[in-house]
Amino acid sequence: MKKIWRVIAGWFFIILGIIGLFLPILQGILFIIIGLLFLAPGNPFIQRLLAKLKKEYPEIFRKLKNEGKTD
Question: Is 16 helix (H, G, I), strand (E, B) or coil?
Fold first, then answer.
């Protein structure tokens, strides 16, 4: 059941990211990366894609890492 919710959440964020690419309000690439992070544990292709994106957009991954920390 947990895997199903992870897949649903991943695709939700990817779709939201695609919409965000066309709307100035949303950060499209950020939501796409979040969606890929949800889907990555079960998919080696997505893991490789995330590694490439991390090289291209390191500041976004830094933001994601810093927002996950609580003080």
Answer: helix
**Radius of gyration for the alpha carbons in the chain, expressed in angstroms and rounded:** 12
Yes or no: say if 50 and 36 are a contact pair by the CB < 8 Å rule.
yes
Residue-wise pLDDT for 33-46, tens only, equals: 889 889 888 788 88
**What average pLDDT does range 9-30 have in this prediction?**
89
Distance CA 5, CA 33 (A): 17
Rounded Cα distance, 33 and 57, in Å: 10
Smallest CA-to-CA distance from 39 within 55, 20, 21, 53 is with 53
Distances (CA, A) of 18 to 1, 28, 44, 47, 68: 26, 6, 22, 19, 23
